[in-house]
Design brief:
CATH topology: de novo design (two linked rop proteins)
Low-confidence stretches: none
Number of strands: 0
Strand content: under 5%
Largest sheet: none
Number of helices: 6
Mean pLDDT: 88
Helix content: over 70%
Number of domains: 1
CATH superfamily: LemA-like domain
Radius of gyration: 23 Å
Length: 182
């Protein structure tokens, strides 16, 4: 009789361990999905920036410092490893903000249909990036919470699940959204 109780207990523990492991794998995949989605929208933004710079350059060619800052920030953000993206994204957002503010000094640029179209695309992409960051950070929160709770932490430590970083902006000034309203 004791033998059957021990066997049943072992089977229950094994079933729990497998279910817990599968749940953690699912959470980890959601984190990867979230990061991949952010990456897709960042790529769209990176592709849009040269067009925006060229359009502004036609009207504000003497604003080379701002244009160079945008290009340099874009290049840093593109080449950054995915775990460092949030740091460079803040720099890029600041540079883009300065670029878009230039249109206030150039009424013809402000009225240019190509510039208005690029501005609208950028606004849409920024909104999608924000949604993607929220999804990713939610997935990270669920994974990080799960691997710290008892008894799930036992399975997490056995299979080397580790905490994932949140996608955060490091500089408080960079937390502000890009103002694309004209």
């Amino acid at each position: 009789m004791v033998k059957y109780i021990i066997i049943a207990l072992v089977v229950i523990i094994l079933i729990w361990a497998v279910a817990t492991y599968n749940k953690l794998i699912s959470f980890r995949m959601k984190v990867k999905e979230g990061l991949s989605t952010i990456d897709v929208f960042l790529k769209k933004r990176y592709d849009l920036i040269p067009n925006l710079v060229e359009t502004v350059k036609g009207y504000a060619s003497h604003e080379k410092t701002t244009l160079n800052q945008v290009i340099e920030a874009r290049n840093k953000a593109i080449s950054a490893p995915i775990e460092d993206k949030s740091k460079y994204e803040g720099e890029l957002s600041n540079a883009l903000s300065k670029l878009l503010m230039l249109s206030e000094n150039y009424p013809n640029l402000k009225a240019d249909s190509q510039f208005l179209n690029l501005q609208e695309q950028l606004q849409t992409i920024e909104s999608e990036i924000e949604k993607s960051r929220r999804y990713y950070n939610g997935a990270v929160r669920i994974l990080n919470t799960s691997i710290q709770k008892v008894p799930t932490c036992i399975i997490a430590s056995l299979f080397k699940f580790s905490k994932e970083p949140f996608f955060e902006i490091e500089n408080d000034n960079e937390r502000e959204n890009i103002k694309v309203k004209f």
